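Worked Example 4.2. Consider the chain below.
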Amino acid sequence: MLAALAAGACGSNEAREQPAEPAPIQIGSESVAVVEREELRTGPLVSGQLSAEREATVRAEVGGSLVQMTLEEGQPVKRGAVLARIAARDLSDAVASARVEVQSAEAALKLARSEARRTESLVQGGALAQRDLENAQNAVVTAQSQLAAARARLSSAQTQLGDTVVRAPLSGVISDKAANAGDVVSPGTALYTVIDPSSMRLEASVPADEIGALQPGVPVEFTVRGYAGQSFTGQIERISPAADPATRQVPIFVSIPNVSGRLIAGLFAEGRVESEVRQGLVVPATALDETRGSPVVTRVLDGRAERVDVKIGIRDRDTERVEILSGLTEGDVVLIGAARSVTPGTAVTVNDR
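Applying the procedure from the previous section yields the following structure tokens:
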């Protein structure tokens, strides 16, 4: 009995001396991510300003006082609609004077032709010399020239008078009104700016070292300040043949359908050229530890943390996601952010709250 008690006492002491296993580390759900198969898009980032592809500055063709300005900023306008009228009384007088000159020249030509016919009859009858007929014919030619010159002056005066009525060169929306009724303008003075908002253009820049990913027709997805949570899509229309020598940026021009007219010229936009789109296993970029050379992630398997070497593919910089080519499978749980520094082998419990 004494021996058995002694043996029991020794066993009890050994049990008390064996250290207990540490409690699992509690990890919040915000510090874990599940490996999923998703679509990744990658390409150069772009930023720039929206502008109208079709825009016209309407200028005064003649000088004078503005007697009418029909539209204000933001109002729609149809091509050919009257935008303004310029008072030019001297042009009206010039048209009237030119009409009188035309009438006088027509009468002179009629008389010259009649005289030429009479002279021709007399020459044929022997009453006048051939030289008299030649003089009469020359008078007809001179009268014709004077009539043509008078008609040209009338046409020019009528054109100038027509220019006093300013019309819209295209259909669109008034974006700027640069003058008011009563202002005295000279030829070339800007009156209105008209833009066609049905098609916009994004003038952006791309780093020169990423020019290989660009070509006309490639889609560009972007967001616009003022339209939170909404994205728009356009296509590269043109690529500048020269980079900016100071910034090493290459200008590109992206055509954007704007049928609904929601986009407004002058707004700032930023997005990305979608040069590559594919499906793959994806983890957040914060799950990667690349401080040791090859990329490593910390995976939770059977309640314990373990380090796993992975091979990565493309990076989606816009959404900060990375493609995993090998090392993980769909459904694996990985730690992200500061949680990825948990020592391998540590017991881990993910707290769903």
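DSSP finds three helices and 22 strands in the chain. The chain has a mean pLDDT of 85. Compare this with Example 4.1 before moving on.
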